[in-house]
Amino acid sequence: MQQTENKIEKKLSDFGGSIQEDNSKAFAAAMSFFAENNGGTLIIEKGTWKTGPISLCSNINIIFEEGAIISFIPTPELYRPVKTRWEGVVCYGMHPCFFASNVENISISGKGIIDGNGEVWWNLLAEKKKQGKPVTDLEKELASLNPGYETQPGGGGGRNTQFLRPSLMQFFECKNVKVKDITLRNSPFWTFHPVFTDGLTVENIFVTNPHDAPNTDGIDIDSCTNVTIDSCSISVGDDGIAIKSGSGPDGIQINKPSKNIKITNCRVGNGHGGVVIGSETAAGIENVDVENCFFDGTDRGIRIKTRRGRGGKVTNLKFRDLLMVNNLCPFAVNMYYACGTNRCEPEFFSLDPLPVKEDTPSVSNVEISGVKATGCKASAGFIAAIPEQPLVNLKITNCEFETNEAATETPDLSDMFAGLPEVNTKSFRIINADNPVFENVKISGPKEAFIFN
After folding, report:
1. C-alpha to C-alpha distances, 379 to 326, 382, 414, 438, nearest whole angstrom
2. What span, in angstroms and rounded, lies between the C-alpha atoms of 446 and 453?
3. Would you say 362 and 433 are in contact if contact means Cβ atoms under 8 Å apart?
4. pLDDT, mean of residues 14-28
5. pLDDT category, 344, cuts 50, 70, 90?
């Protein structure tokens, strides 16, 4: 990463910051100062610093002292509309709490905490689901900025109300970003969300949200390139580490894939998946390497999810030397992903081959080796590709999958799918895979090792 040569160093208190007060003006003054001086270092001192949303400038180096906390005030009206990507669609959403847009050379480090005070947001979401449409002035403003939002795809976060909650930390169209050692917690929505960003290094960060906090993914790499994620620990209420590239027509038109991504030495506990591809796959995802990770109690270990209408070519994925315990399913490829849809829509969930179109997704060139999974509660594995685009070039070698036959979870909990017939055994289930290769693969527990249907 390119480092700024500017030696200016300031503390937040130098800009009028004060513990336990609203420091929105202090952060704005700091960013204005560093922008005028081509960057420098901002020290966040020990203590709790309340604030509204923060926008970063280029060439900024933010260092947290141990015990420093940035605590975001959970008042929606403070988070004015900005251009972002929300559940796969470029639109206007609430200003992310910690936000950088069209800037470069950013470093954030230190044993501090960034807290989104998400409980207020999660409780509001529960109420918003009852209203069904925009009601507040801010929601109506977002609706006016996002014409046609009613028909835009989503993953279940609530686009129909335009209560477009902010991410806790987002980098939008940035270059050369490094984040190290900090803790991110209690996010209103997706927690760490880089979009259209090139050159991102994430090391030893901690992401924690309650297991029942809605849509609180840990890390979402969204149409980004040249990304390294190393030695991170994540426990959240949705997917742990996800890789995305936009959804439906908007993502296809923008056409910015996620590629050249390496994930190593990470631990994910709780959450719907350990490392997840999709479900926003419109521009494609390629060249992903996941190695030496531990998935402890996540619903799925490796999870690839998409469906007809999402689009995108997902290819060249390698998963090596992974340990998984007490998952529902250790490895899932689900092209019948149901969330955010009417499950009765035949064009999404037909078992018959349909014409291949621009928005028909595909998955190919997947290698899995050295995986040991024990205590799998729903199944030993799950692959459900669509018949017009079967999974091509799947190779699984030197792996052990052991199911927990005493667990009450059924095979239908292997992933969130619709339209597929039920099965009664916790076997490794395969639908529409073109000559998959299994070498030295041991499956313990179910009466049948594999089910092909």
Report:
1. 11, 7, 6, 17
2. 16
3. no
4. 95
5. low
Residue 56 has pLDDT above 70, yes or no: yes
Length of the chain: 453
pLDDT of residue 342: 64
Beta bridge partners of residue 263, listed in sequence order? 229, 290
Which two tokens mark 398?
Answer: 């030197």
